[in-house]
Amino acid sequence: MAARKKGLSLEEKRAKMLELFYESQDIFQMKELEKIAPKKKGVISQSVKEVTQSLLDDGLIECEKIGPFVCYWAFPSKAMQTDSKRRSELLALYSNLEAQEKDLSKGLDKYAQCSHEVIAQRKVRAERNREEINRWTGNVPSLCACAPSLSGLCARRSRPFEELERRIKRKSTFSFLDNILSIKKWCKSEFGMEENVLDQQFEIPADLDYI
Fold first, then answer.
1. Rounded Cα distance, 58 and 103, in Å
2. Subcellular localization, per the record (predicted)?
3. CA distance 40 to 47
4. Cα–Cα distance for residue pair 177/150, rounded to 1 Å
């Protein structure tokens, strides 16, 4: 038994119908195409209308009503113009996409550069904050050491000046304590450090307070 012949695909039918138009260079009605196409190009009559409409939708053939008849035709020169137009459109589209790609690439490069700059600025800011902490807290141990020594200094004074020296001692001690507590408050506010951590890190006695 002979194998059944495989039918034409849609693209093959389109190509065959275009050949029919180009080779004949004539004008046809649909009924004429349905009769001629099966004989000359092997396109079955049932699909001629569908294939012709697809060619018309793509601008590959022309269609116009002449009197009471709807006529179809296509010439190679028209096809060349259509191909040229499509080629121009594709080139324009390609150029547009290429320009968009370049703009996108520039935007990504700029974003990456800005990200590096932001990171560098944050590092500089963090270093400045660290230096500021060291500047403020560098004298804390010496201030703490000076506060207890004031008591011994006052004990060596003579009795007539005892009250005056006691006041001076209290004022000086309070001044030292004010400085220490101000530094602790600033560190807690700026850097969110716990008080016990500050005391331990900068050797501040836990029981240090106003007399």
1. 33
2. Nucleus
3. 15
4. 13
